[in-house]
């Protein structure tokens, strides 16, 4: 089938940098899904995403949809024709609705009688007729931020639309979008090529734009930005740091990247490097430069959007702007050093943390109390943990953090170092917020782990205590993230802990502020659900988690996680799988009989050898399970249960549990209850599917 390249370009004012990359990807996805649905084949789709344009270039698009076979089931023959054999009103209505004649129908034999059916072929539509509406639908479906209106148009887009290109090969496809008529006139670089340019053929689009100083493909431009920035490095002397997020943001700002290297006064290097990098990266979109040891240097790289006739003048302008930014940072730093960190604590009593939970100062004192309680578990002195918690938020009142909010915690560590505060405390201060997300590390120091746990526990338990848990998809205080953070810290710590005790301590720390007496139980269930999410997300089955939790009432994430891993691996053994099936059968028998598992067993009532064998095997397994659990060997406990496969299989082959003799029946149920009780010490295997 014949093919041609198809071009769709929507030209507009500069698009939001934060949305450009995703918008380009989303548009390609939307176009591809609609093309697949339409039946129009193509070789590939190349995205167009630059500051002033969004679109796609579809390579080798088929010019015609394939014909479609149509089968339309009409009324039955009895309903379709009257007694004289004339078409009924029902049949005529069906034919008129579908644009066919009664004579076009054929009779089809079915189990319910003879029905009338139309079988035909619908010719495929031309790509030229399909693509305009398809592109409009794709644009309307984009999840763009802050749509707006302009001029007299009632349609909305994230920025005013200035031009529209829609071509199939050399031909312009007529279309109207955002009050713009399609054509073959695009625009090049705003400075180097300010007028309109003609796209001769759709396939020549990228080369035509590149000749006018526009790299329209996001990925190509991104690679160029990264390569050009790194080209400014000088081997053995300094390296330009190009982190992905900044490269993406710069890529969304420029159409024709040109690298320029500037410098700033080396005296600014006395300011913490994170503040200088934040000034360059967040405010100016500059790449910072480091020496071979990784220390920040007084150089930077900016990416201009044009080839200047006087690059030195452009560099000078950027240096002037940066000097003002860094001067502010140095002023904040010098000012903050005049005030001891601890002296800021009193000011926290003037900042409301939550209307029902008091001030930020109240929160820090509660966190200090919680930290002191859990510190021994981490071999940290309680007073040290308490002091670290009280200092952890003090830098929020510093000038530096007020200007650079992303430096909270980190600046506290810098101030503490300068004041000579004990290193264990100083290094922990920037870890109180960790982990800040799924990709962030957990605290590296023991004191940092303690104060991070205490801070999160206070927030989480406190909000439950005043009746403000997360609901549905709404979690304004990020309590789910706090719970996952606590679980990750405990997992990295690697030792068994009882989160329930920590929850109780955090609830007690709320004092008279607590109004919800059910909060401790609710928080336990909340952690249980989060742990389940973590483990199922790691690939373990929910039923395995439930089986382990049924036998492990204490909220010990490390032990529970370890047991889930061991049980999942052990289910690869056919013996344990069959024992699990037997456990499910036993559970059903006991439930139906409403048997009391505490009923004593009378060996004298055993009438079958299989009963005696199972009772003996159960006692032996009980001894082995008890020893294994005391030794912390969950795998050995499961192996002891797996060894019961033979006796259990023989029992159900030979023994009728619901015997006619009520005493024998009760004794057999008691024996099964004892066995089920043994399972309950390890895991509720009845919940595990065979």
Summarize it:
By secondary structure, this protein is α+β, with helices and mostly antiparallel strands. The chain is built from 25 helices and 18 strands.
* Global outline: flat
Please report the number of helical segments: 25
Helix/strand-derived category reads alpha+beta
- Name of the top-level CATH class of the largest domain: Mainly Alpha
Organism: Litorivicinus lipolyticus
EC number: 6.1.1.14
Family: Belongs to the class-II aminoacyl-tRNA synthetase family.
Keywords: Aminoacyl-tRNA synthetase, ATP-binding, Cytoplasm, Ligase, Nucleotide-binding, Protein biosynthesis
Which secondary structure elements does this structure contain, and how are they paired or packed?
Elements: E1 3-12, H1 17-38, E2 44-50, E3 53-62, E4 68-76, H2 77-80, H3 89-98, E5 106-110, E6 113-122, H4 127-140, E7 161-168, E8 171-172, E9 176-177, E10 180-181, E11 185-187, E12 196-198, H5 205-211, H6 218-230, E13 239-240, H7 244-251, E14 258-263, H8 273-284, E15 287-290, E16 296-304, H9 311-336, E17 352-354, E18 358-359, H10 360-374, H11 382-391, H12 399-403, H13 410-419, H14 423-428, H15 446-465, H16 479-493, H17 499-509, H18 519-537, H19 542-550, H20 557-570, H21 574-593, H22 609-630, H23 634-642, H24 645-654, H25 662-682
Antiparallel strand pairs: 1-3, 1-7, 2-3, 4-6, 5-6, 7-8, 9-10, 11-12, 13-15, 14-16, 15-16, 17-18
List keywords for this structure.
single chain; 690 residues; 5 domains; 5-stranded antiparallel sheet; 4-stranded antiparallel sheet; 25 helices; 48% helix; nucleotide-binding; glycine-tRNA ligase activity; ATP-binding; cytoplasm
């Amino acid at each position: 089938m014949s093919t041609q390249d198809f071009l769709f370009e929507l030209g507009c004012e500069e698009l939001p940098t934060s949305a450009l990359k995703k918008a380009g990807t989303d548009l390609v996805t939307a176009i591809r899904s609609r093309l697949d649905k339409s039946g129009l084949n193509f070789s590939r789709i190349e995205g167009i995403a630059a500051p002033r344009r969004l679109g796609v270039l579809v390579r080798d698009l088929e010019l015609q949809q394939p014909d479609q076979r149509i089968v339309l089931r009409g009324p039955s023959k009895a309903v379709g024709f009257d007694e004289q054999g004339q078409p009924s009103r029902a049949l005529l209505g069906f034919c008129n609705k579908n644009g066919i004649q009664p004579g076009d129908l054929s009779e089809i034999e079915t189990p319910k009688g003879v029905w009338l059916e139309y079988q035909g072929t619908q010719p495929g539509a031309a790509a030229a007729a399909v693509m305009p509406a398809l592109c409009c639908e794709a644009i309307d479906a984009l999840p763009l931020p802050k749509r707006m209106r302009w001029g007299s148009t009632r349609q909305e887009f994230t920025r005013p639309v200035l031009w529209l290109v829609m071509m199939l090969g050399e031909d312009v496809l007529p279309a109207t979008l955002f009050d713009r008529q399609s054509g073959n006139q695009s625009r090049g670089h705003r400075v180097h090529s300010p007028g309109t340019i003609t796209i001769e053929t759709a396939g020549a689009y990228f080369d035509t734009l590149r000749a006018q100083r526009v790299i329209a493909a996001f990925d190509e431009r991104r690679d160029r930005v990264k390569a050009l920035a790194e080209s400014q490095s000088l081997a053995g002397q300094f390296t330009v740091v190009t982190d992905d997020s900044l490269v993406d943001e710069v890529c969304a700002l420029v159409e024709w990247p040109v690298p320029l290297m500037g410098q700033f006064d080396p005296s600014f290097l006395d300011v913490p490097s994170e503040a200088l990098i934040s000034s360059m990266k967040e405010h100016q979109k500059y790449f910072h430069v480091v020496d071979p040891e990784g220390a920040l240097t007084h150089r930077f790289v900016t990416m201009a959007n044009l080839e200047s006739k006087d690059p030195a003048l452009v560099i000078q302008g950027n240096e002037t702007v940066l000097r003002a930014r860094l001067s502010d940072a140095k002023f904040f730093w010098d000012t903050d050093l005049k005030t001891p960190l601890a002296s800021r604590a009193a000011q926290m009593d003037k900042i409301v943390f939550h209307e029902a939970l008091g001030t930020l100062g109240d929160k820090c004192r509660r966190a200090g109390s919680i930290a002191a309680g859990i510190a021994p578990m981490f071999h940290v002195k309680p007073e040290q943990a308490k002091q670290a918690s009280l200092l952890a938020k003090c830098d929020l009142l510093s000038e530096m953090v007020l200007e650079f909010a992303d430096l909270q915690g980190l600046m506290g560590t810098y101030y503490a170092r300068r004041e000579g505060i004990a290193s264990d405390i100083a290094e922990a201060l920037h870890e109180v917020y960790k982990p800040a997300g799924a990709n962030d590390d957990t605290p590296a120091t023991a004191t940092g782990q303690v104060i991070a746990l205490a801070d999160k526990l206070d927030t989480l338990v406190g909000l439950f205590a005043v009746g403000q848990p997360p609901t549905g998809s709404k979690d304004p205080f990020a309590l789910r993230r706090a719970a996952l953070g606590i679980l990750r810290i405990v997992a990295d710590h690697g030792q068994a802990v009882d989160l329930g005790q920590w929850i109780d301590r955090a609830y007690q720390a709320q004092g008279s502020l607590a109004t919800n007496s059910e909060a401790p139980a609710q928080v336990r269930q909340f952690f249980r659900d989060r742990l389940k999410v973590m483990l199922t997300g790691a690939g373990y089955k929910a039923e395995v988690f439930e089986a382990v939790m049924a036998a492990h009432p204490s909220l010990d994430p490390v032990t529970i996680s370890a047991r889930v891993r061991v049980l999942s691996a052990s289910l690869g053994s056919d013996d344990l799988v069959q024992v699990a099936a037997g456990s499910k059968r036993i559970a059903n028998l006991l439930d139906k009989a409403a048997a009391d598992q505490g009923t004593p067993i009378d060996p004298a009532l055993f009438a079958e050898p299989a009963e005696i064998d199972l009772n003996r095997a159960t006692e032996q397994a009980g001894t082995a399970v008890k020893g294994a659990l005391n030794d912390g060997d969950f795998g050995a406990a499961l192996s002891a249960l797996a060894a019961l496969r033979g006796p259990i299989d023989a029992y159900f082959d030979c023994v009728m549990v619901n015997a006619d003799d009520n005493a024998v029946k009760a004794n057999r149920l008691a024996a099964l209850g004892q066995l089920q009780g043994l399972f309950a010490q390890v895991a509720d295997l009845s919940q595990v599917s065979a």
